[in-house]
Protein: DUF2147 domain-containing protein
Amino acid sequence: MKKLLFASLMLFFSAVSYAQIEGKWKTIDDETGKPKSIVEIFKKSDGKYYGKIVQLLAKPENENCVKCTDDRKNKPLIGLEIIRGLKKDGNEFSGGHITDPKNGKTYKCTVKTDGSDKLDVRGYIGFSLIGRSQTWHKVK
Structure:
């Protein structure tokens, strides 16, 4: 009986953590392969997920988002909300947008995790085949 209870609890906690994207994630620069920033993903009262830069690990060209064209224009990178409006959809999070502060462009976004310490982030235009993916790593 204890084994069954333990197995049930482990299954429950693994299912709960499976789709967990909240927390701090280390981003990796596509060009250099080196850590670039720490992004904190959190859930707002609207039930959607957002992500903001909380730490820069590499010195950027500019401390502000000078190429952003929306309400983030010229805002400091630290605290900049780069992910907006993700909704949980099964085992992935979608329906939101991600902004690349380097070029100021905003893309549709999907995020997936397999419950490990890695987050697959995909930004794309139009449909998901035309885009780019990154793997972010959980900050412990």
About this structure: The first strand starts at residue 23 and ends at 28. Helices lie at 2-18. Confidence is low (pLDDT under 50) at residues 1-18. The two ends are 34 Å apart (CA to CA).
